[in-house]
Amino acid sequence: MVTNQIVVTANPVFVSVPMELALISREYKAGLYHLFSWFLSKNVSELPMQILLPIYFLVGIGHGFDVFIYLQIVLIIINSCVIGLAYMVSCLVPRVDIAPLIGMVLIMPFMLFGGLLINSDDCPDYFVWIQYISPIKYGYEAVMKIFWNAVDSISCNTTNCTARTGQEVLESYSMTSRSALGDSLLLLLLNVAFRAIAFIAIWMRLRQKK
């Protein structure tokens, strides 16, 4: 769910934002509005879609309605954070032909070292820093913690079973350092940082063109 949310959400933004910037540049230079007014209105106007699109009503996650609600909240935060990341890339590289490529190149190490494909404890020391700025890491861990903390026991053969409880599953994936709430708050922090960098990048670019 996390990977699908990130890739499917980011790709359209990598294309749409650079296409808007030429028009924004012209209207900003004409003094029609302040740049922050456009940026704020764009962020606010897209909120309803960011809230509605990540909802999976038919997944059948189980373990109670509260688990379902918590997962949807995390998916909404992931969706918003990824859009913030796409804003940042698109404003730093405002070309329709290049921004999607740069964006996917950036997402791949986030995916690789974010705990999804490689256990965090097995990550080489010189790549550890990547996981701390990876929205995939915090989103994936939050989803895993919400789901597996609701699993009291796992029915399996004791000989071949590597984990008997949800907590043991999280320990095997090295996901016991923070709570799901902590991961969600870090996602929100990354979201704000990505969007702030995006605004500063486009603001500096337009000032240079004056």
Automatic annotation (TrEMBL):
> What Pfam families does this protein map onto?
ABC2_membrane (PF01061)
Where does this polypeptide localize? Membrane
InterPro entries linked to this entry: ABC2_TM, ABCG_transporters
Instruction: Kindly give the membrane topology term recorded for this protein.
Output: Multi-pass membrane protein
Residue span, ABC-2 type transporter transmembrane domain: 2-147
Sorted alphabetically, the Gene Ontology cellular component annotations on this record are: membrane
Q: Which UniProt keywords apply?
A: ATP-binding, Membrane, Nucleotide-binding, Transmembrane, Transmembrane helix, Transport
Q: Does the keyword Translocase apply?
A: no
Entry annotated with the keyword rRNA-binding: no
GO function term, MF aspect, one: ATP binding
Report the domain of life of the source organism.
Eukaryota
The transmembrane segments are 6-24, 67-89, 101-118, 185-204
Question: PANTHER family, per this entry?
Answer: ABC TRANSPORTER G FAMILY MEMBER 28, PROTEIN SCARLET
| Protein name, UniProt field | ABC transporter ATP-binding protein/permease wht-1
What organism does the record attribute this protein to? Phytophthora citrophthora
Taxonomy-wise, where does this protein's organism fall, top ranks first? Eukaryota, Sar, Stramenopiles, Oomycota, Peronosporomycetes
